[in-house]
Structure formats: C-alpha cells, structure tokens
Amino acid sequence: QEGRSSRYPDIDFCKDPQAICANTDHPELKWIAGFFYWMKELQRYDRDGWSYMDNLSNFVNGGMQDFAFIDAVSGIVNRGCHNPPCATGSVDGLQERRNNFQKVLRVFQLPSSGKAPGLTASLGSIPGLPSVPLVGLPPSSSTSSSLESLSSSSSSSSSSTSTSSSTSTATSLLNQFIQWIYGKKFVFENYILTYQTANGASVASDIYTFDILLESLAYAASIGYAGKKFYTGDRKVTDPSDFDTAKFKQSQIVSHDLQLRYGLVNAATFLSQVVVESVQYNVCEDYYPSDTYAENPMSNYGQFGAPYTEYKCSPDESQMECPETAAEVKGIGGLMTKGRCMLGKLNKYLGPSYGIDFCNNPSDVCQDKRFSNPSIVWDVPLFEWVDRIQSYNDHGFNYLDELHKFVDGGMVSDDFIVGVSKILTKGSVDAQGQVPRYGDRMGNFYLLLKYLVKERDGESLSIPTANNANLQVYYNLLLLLPLVGMLLLW
C-alpha cells in the first residue's frame, strides 16, 4: 500500500498479529518478530541514565560476574523499565530468566554463573565425547596459543616455548581425565550415584547426576575456585613452593600415565566421600541416620554427630568467617559442608555467583537444586575439597604427598583413605575416635578405584586385608553388586 517492498505482503500484522505464531508457511516469523523487538526496544534503550549498549559493554568488560545486567534487561522486557518494580509490578520469573541467561552463556562458551572469566570449551572438543557444553574445559587445540598471546612481549622465546609445552601437557592430561570418567557413565548412573528406596530398589539420584558432575568437575579442574584447582595429576598445578627442590624436579619427569592415575585416585577419593555423605541418602542437607548420637541437639550437631561449632577458620583466614550471629544450619551439598569458616568462604567466592547468602541462608542451596542451579550441589563440595581437603598439610600428613605414596605403593594401604576420612569428618588427621561410616567409605573408595583406575590398567581389584572379618565380607559384597545388577537386567 505504501509502495515499498515487503517480505510478507500477504500478512496484515495490525489486523492479524496471531499470524506470527499461527502462520505455518512462515515459521521463521516467531524469531523475526523477536529480533525486531530486540533491536528496536532493547538495543536502543536509553532512559534515566541507563543505556543498554553501555551496560552490555560494562558487563562484559567487568567479567560477567553479576546479575545486574540481566535483571535490568528482564525488567525492560517484562515490565518496560530497567529498574523494576515499575508501575506495572515486579519481574515475572526473574530467577528463571537468570538461569536461562547462564545456560546460553555456557552454550556460547562464555563464563557463566558469575564465575571468573577463563578458558572455556565444550566436551565436543575432546574426541569421543558429546557436544554438551562444559564450562572451563580448555580446548586442546587453542589453549597454548591463547596463553602465549597473554605472555609478556619481553619474554624470551625459550620461556614462551616452555609455557606452551607445559600448558599443552596439562590440557592433554585434563582431557584424558574427563574422557575416562565420561566413559564410565553407565557405571556411575547405575552403581555409584544411586540410592535405595524404601522398598529396597536401587534408583539413580535425581540430585547428584552424572552430567552435572562432569561439568562441575571440568570447571574445578581447569579454572577452579579462589585460585585452587581440582588435582588431576599434573604436579605443576600445585605451587612449586609446596615441594622441596629435589621433589619438584623429580615431578617434572613423572610419566603422563602415572599423573593421570594420581588424578583419577583423587577423583575416587572425593566421590567415595560424597557417596557416603549424601548420595546414598539422595539428600542435599544433613541426613540423620540411626547411628547419629541421639543426645546431640540437631541445631548444634550435624551428620554423624559432627559439631558445627568446631569448624572455624585459621587465624589468617578468620576475616572470612560468617559472623557468630549467622544462622546455625545443617550441612549442605555433596559433602554436607558446614561451619562458619567454610560457609564464609563460600559466601565470598560463590555467593555472588549464585545469589545466595551462605552465612544466613545456606539452605537456599537445596531449595532449587534440581531445577534452577543443579550444579551447586557439586560446586559446593568441590570447593570444600580443593580448599580444605586437597590442601591439607598438618600433623605430618600432606594430602598430595600421601596420595602419591598411596599410588606409588600399589594402592593397597588403608592409611590414606582413613586419614582423608578423618580430615573430612573430624577436621584433623590425628583426631581421636572412630570415623563415622568407616566401612562405607572404605568400600566405596575401593569400588571407585576398581572402575576409575584398575580397570584402566587391566588389573583386577586387590582389596587389602581387613582387620574385621565382617568388613572383608562387606567389601566382597560391594564388588558383587555390578554382577548382580547385570543379571537383573538380563
């Protein structure tokens, strides 16, 4: 009618706006209408001192670490203003909009959930793995060049070559680490990340799922939390100052295969504790089994009678503790993380990302665990593991040194897993008293070693001699579970 060209001359959008959704000849209209609205109303938005383009730039340049930008955009789309509640009310589905924004950032291989910017990729960059996006997994082909571009222009060529080589080695190790664990997906979903229902049936956990575990593990190993990474076997991820000169020089010539074994044993150790603390009950908060001390008030004691009040920071980290007035709560996440110190650290490093006050409302971790933030039940225990367990070095027990000794000694001594279990449940390797659920921790540890380490080496599982005959029987029964499961499937 106006004498200009029109892509859809047969549609009168004023009289029939429903054609956008109903016209089967032009299914693309749904997207075109959305893009048109976005370019006209969002990208051009500039009111009351808030400009979309300026704030987009600020968000990206600031590391994409908060929700202020997406909250303002959601307000414009849903309520017509960037600072709701507007005259029309609060934003509908604000949390869902935040979560969807984070998902898209991950698909685009950008930092998400407010985590610090770093190298990102998808599992598809590793041969044989699916194209599910994983935050924090360095691409094997581009990591070296990316890091080289960040090096100082004054660095010598030999230094750049050394950095590139070590980075390539670490990336290859990480890729193999993730790939091997992914190859055990069936085992994890059917025998490890499972719990028993009231009628005795074994069911896959809907809280601790394998795909989210793999994603969080990749992030923890490649980018990490508060400057610390999940140990995958690369001795160089640990600060060389932690080793004496002779030890560190020796670590430079450790075989690639042995380093991978170190990393897989670390994963088996972590997961064996998570299974006992939470997965076998399919819970996100402290569960009080029958062996919990009945005389301990629930408000002061956690799972297996562990007192919350003893979980305090060392003097040099005391400034991160939650205030004494903070709510005393149950443990949360895969390791039932608790205490003023660890919750205070989570509040500082993960709180802004997830929009959770870990000091006053840590139970929020478990409120939307299946939907809004499914990775949080893995991120919280991984944070505690790299910060408190993996970094433990006290009373003559250095976690990484003891892990190396355990592997180098043939993985037959109970001392390592007993020591780790004491550190996790009692706070110190020299703590007195029996480790809660000792048999469960041992059984799960050796079961995970079988699947993650010894099957890879073509070895059969050799279980150490148990002092308790009943415990030996328990170990053997655990090893029969996969066979029984297969027979039931047939």
SSE map:
Blueprint: H1 19-22, H2 29-42, E1 46-47, E2 50-51, H3 52-61, H4 68-79, H5 94-107, E3 121-122, E4 133-134, H6 143-150, H7 157-182, H8 185-192, E5 194-196, E6 202-204, H9 210-222, H10 245-251, H11 256-277, H12 340-349, H13 351-354, H14 364-367, H15 376-389, E7 393-394, E8 397-398, H16 399-408, H17 415-426, H18 438-454, H19 469-489
Antiparallel strand pairs: 1-2, 3-4, 5-6, 7-8
Task: Explain what you see.
The chain is 47% helix and 4% strand. The protein has 490 residues and is mainly alpha-helical. The radius of gyration is 26 Å and the shape is elongated. It starts with 18 loop residues before the first helix and ends with a helix. The model is unreliable at 113-164, 237-252, 290-305 and 460-490 (pLDDT under 50).
Characteristic key phrases:
disordered C terminus, elongated, 490 residues, mainly alpha, 4% strand
Concise structural overview:
The protein has 490 residues and is mainly α.
Query: Sheet with the most strands?
Result: 2 strands, antiparallel
Tally of DSSP β-strands: 8
The number of helical runs is: 19
Structural class given helices, strands, pairing?
mainly alpha
Radius of gyration: 26 Å
Which geometry do the CA atoms define?
A: elongated
The mean pLDDT is 74
Helix content: 40-55%
Separation, N- and C-terminal Cα atoms: 70 Å
β content, as a range?
under 5%
List low-confidence stretches: 113-164, 237-252, 290-305, 460-490
What letter string, H or E per element, gives the SSE order? Answer: HHEEHHHEEHHHEEHHHHHHHEEHHHH
Strand order of the largest sheet: 1-2
